[in-house]
Design a protein that fits this description.
Length: 419
């Protein structure tokens, strides 16, 4: 499958836009990006967490033939006598799963039938064995059973030729079961998206090394790499680079050769040593967005040697939130997955908050034993302990808002983001 390159202006905002609202940024991501990976054929047993590149139809009906839903006795409903107590003679034989009864069942007779067995000709109703008395060569039961009881009709689940999944669907284990049940053996999926993660900052060192007092351990790169793995992408360690434009340029070049997309933490703003945004502007195709979001705001979305590149703030909390809110939907599109919406829930607040208009805010939160949302004690972007403490985010609107305990607020659990 031939994949067209991204357009040079895929991240371009309209002229005159100073602060980009969150919804506008997400709409632009959806509009400006498309899948950048090729396709391959895989068997369904290896297809979990893969994204379909074409629609898939059932090759066989499920179930292929009518069968019994219970262990019991089958008969023709029209042959029942019009009386309260019914007695039917048993026809010799048994219909079992994988061992169908080869003959017809005579009107006015019953046949022993087991769960999953094909319904033989002459049977349109099955009664549970617990509802009958067996008297030698006959069964006795009370009237009132409806015609067609305890049967699974042919194709009642899925019919042959029916489209069961559209292109862009992320396959889950339960989806694999449906594919297998309908005879689908091989499918076309997108190749896994490869995403490189680069961290920048002279002050950073790798965890495990000996740190000076003026150095800090790099938390962003291992965090982002693990986020990517949780989302089912191939995470590539793109390295750590000091605040030197020549060094960062070499790192970006290497990442662009080895990955389909790049995440960079740090250097996305406009400070003296924010070389990531400067390089992307001077040598790549950059749109630095001042997104109206907290935590976050400076987010670089660009093409570097044709590779989609996302520059996130260096503060870990901001990098985490921006990766969830902007990075994930972008990667889904690049990987071929249809969008869908992040599931959120309305829950009572267990906190006070007053915010000004102008930015959408995301607060680290978790639900207490009463199902009310608590928020972390600090909104500081460097307070990584708040990420570990929380189970999700509270999303506050762009407009001014005042929250009091008991007010309903929007809660997005981290499970809605895939982990």
């Amino acid at each position: 499958m031939s994949i067209p390159p991204l357009k040079n202006n895929c991240f371009a905002m309209p002229p005159g836009v100073e602060w980009t609202p969150v919804d506008a940024a997400l709409a632009l991501i959806k509009k400006g990006l498309h899948p950048v990976v090729g396709t391959e054929r895989v068997t369904v047993d290896l297809a979990a967490d893969r994204i379909l590149s074409t629609e898939v139809s059932a090759k066989r009906s499920n179930p292929p033939l009518a069968n019994s839903a219970v262990d019991g006795y089958g008969f023709c409903h029209d042959g029942l006598a019009d009386q309260d107590i019914i007695d039917l003679p048993l026809q010799n034989g048994v219909s079992a799963a994988g061992k169908p009864y080869a003959s017809d069942v005579k009107a006015g007779y019953a046949l022993r039938i087991l769960t999953g067995a094909i319904i033989p000709s002459g049977v349109d109703t099955v009664i549970l064995e617990e509802d009958v008395s067996v008297n030698g060569a006959s069964i006795t039961f009370r009237s009132g059973l409806r015609c067609g009881a305890n049967l699974r009709n042919a194709a009642e689940d899925v019919a042959q030729g029916q489209v069961i999944f559209q292109a862009g669907h992320l396959l889950r284990p339960q989806d694999i079961a449906l594919l297998a049940a309908t005879g689908v053996h091989k499918i076309s999926v997108y190749k896994r998206l490869k995403v490189a993660v680069i961290s920048t900052g002279t002050e950073l060192i790798k965890v495990g090394d000996i740190a000076r007092d003026d150095q800090i351990f790099d938390a962003n790169k291992p965090m982002l790499l693990n986020m990517l793995t949780s989302w089912g992408y191939d995470a590539v360690d793109g390295g750590h680079y000091i605040d030197d434009p020549d060094v960062i340029r070499d790192g970006l070049n290497a990442a662009a050769q080895n990955a389909d997309a790049i995440f960079v933490s740090g250097g996305a703003s406009a400070g003296d040593e924010d070389y990531v945004s400067k390089l992307l502007k001077e040598e790549g195709i950059l749109n630095t967005w001042r997104v109206a979001v907290k935590p976050g705001r400076p987010i670089a979305m660009a093409l570097w040697n044709g590779t989609p590149t996302f520059g996130f703030p260096g503060n870990p909390v901001a990098a985490f939130v921006c990766a969830l809110i902007f990075g994930l939907p972008a990667l889904k599109t690049l990987a071929g997955q249809f969008g869908g919406t992040v599931k959120s829930y309305q829950v009572p607040a267990a906190f006070d908050k007053s915010k000004k208009a102008g930015r959408r805010e995301y607060l680290r939160a978790r639900l207490n034993e009463n199902g009310h949302a608590e928020v972390f004690k600090s909104e500081g972007s460097g307070r990584i302990s708040g990420l570990a403490w929380s189970d999700g985010l509270i999303e506050l609107p762009d407009a001014a808002d005042t929250v009091k305990p008991g007010d309903m607020v929007t809660y997005i659990p981290y499970s809605s983001f895939g982990f």
